Amino acid sequence: MARIVLASASPRRQELLRRIGLTDFTVRVPNVEEAFPEGLSPQETVKYISREKSQAVDAAEDEIVITADTMVFLDGQKLGKPADESEALAMLTALQGRHHTVCTGVTVRLGSRMETEAETTEVYFRPVSREELLAYIATGEPMDKAGAYGIQGVGALLVEGIRGDYFNVMGLPVLRLSRMLSRFGVHLLV
Questions:
Q1: What pTM did the predictor assign?
Q2: What are the chain's domains?
Q3: Which residues are catalytic?
Q4: Which of 1, 31, 64, 169 is least enclosed by beta carbons within 10 angstroms?
Q5: Which tens digit of pLDDT belongs to each residue from 133-147?
Q6: Is the pLDDT of residue 1 over 80?
């Protein structure tokens, strides 16, 4: 099997790779400004940034590079990581009682061959009181997460339901990734 490089500093992505049986990989963090052209759809946006991250990582010809970019969109507007607690409260207040979209672009590259796909998941937040939101923010969990929540942590208490890939909301759609890797000769179940 080719050597695997995960081009991400995300501990969640590293954990998800291990969960699906990829335990022998190297982490290389790309240095990329996450800018993108105006007018792209959410799916096109995350695919664009994922490709940019992949191209920013040096790799040997026999190394498979995996990159991903996850964004949260509410009414077509991107919600990034909150700058402070008041911004986290504003984001979470906007999300409560509504649905929003989580999109992840995934790129797999081996040598000059590169494939990029996007996964979309709809997330439904239950109605939440201001007091609950403030208590959640006090945990510190929202501060390094797009959309100001983590579905894999205490933020799960805000989520009423999802339609789509749960792992996509964590930052890496593992089923889509496994299918992409199989086209590069990496078969996780065989």
A1: 0.92
A2: 3-182 (3.90.950.10)
A3: 69
A4: 31
A5: 999 999 999 998 999
A6: no
